[in-house]
Amino acid sequence: MTDELDFIQSLRAIAAHPAARGLEDDAAVLQVGSETLILTHDTMVEGVHYLPQQNMADVAWKLVSVNLSDLAAKGAQPLGVLYSHMLGANDNQFLDGLREALQAYNVPLLGGDTTAGGPPRAFGLTAIGRATHRPVPSRSGAKPGDGVYLTGPVGAAMLGFETLRDNNDGDTAAYRRPIALLRQGRALAPLVSAIMDVSDGLLLDASRIANASKVTINLDPRAVPIAVPENRRDEALRWGDDYQLLFTAPDAIQWPVPVHQIGKVEECGPSPLLINGAVPQKGDRLGFRHSRSIGTD
């Protein structure tokens, strides 16, 4: 398998349009006349992003939410979605979940494509939004002296996945049906210096902001709110799928939504990420990368 980071690096040579932002961001930012459009695309693959035994209505819901979460990180107002569907078992379930998600977010389906294929099955969705604040925030604006903030706890999706995988009783909603924080994103967009959603693990995503901004982020892991027992804190910081908003901003801001300060931005050092002032150990798995499937850790 081609390494994901190497492949993205090769794509950057092709994605030369300014709207692509060098593929360093959650979404493309396209100026069309006086309007600024936000465009993002995500794919969900059976056995990688969801369990084969999952209800397909939940898969459809999550496909919508993970894309709208990227719009949330841009402070965007969704305008519509396009989606591609690989035909297979329980298609009616999928349609029920898609309809439910789009109604819940009040977002229209504008078109897409259907195809045969699989297993494994794969589904893609493109979300289109309108910027509500300009300049549109990115991952690359963090500055030394900024605080590092998180909108809510991490780890609930990890517990939900394990409960679902092991067919146990328990709350699985955070994994099956995450919520895109669109309202919070619009409120934060005018105030942040850098922002993204936590999809691949808090530590990994913090390092992405640091790399894009050419700074070092020093996280205090004990300040991070978690939705798991204390003895699983380290796992929760690395697991991902929580879709909280992670951002940097100057201190002394009156926040319009609940936030938690979890670290500080420092001048660029030898490592983009520090954990309690220490460089992560070599080989430390900071989060999810596409060289493995779910359930293999």
Entry summary:
The chain is built from eight helices and eleven strands. It is an alpha+beta fold and about 300 residues long.
Structure description:
- This protein has 297 residues and is of the alpha+beta class.
- It has two domains: 4-131, PurM-like, N-terminal domain (60s Ribosomal Protein L30, Chain: A), CATH 3.30.1330.10; 147-275, PurM-like C-terminal domain (Phosphoribosyl-aminoimidazole Synthetase, Chain A, domain 2), CATH 3.90.650.
- 27% of the residues lie in helices and 24% in strands.
- It contains eight helices and eleven strands.
- It has a six-stranded mixed β-sheet with strand order 7-9-6-10-8-11, sandwiched between helices. The protein has a five-stranded mixed β-sheet with strand order 1-2-5-3-4, covered by helices on one side.
- Helix 3 (91-105) links the parallel strand 3 (76-86) and strand 4.
- Helix 2 (56-72) runs parallel beside helix 3.
- The longest helix has 17 residues, at 56-72.
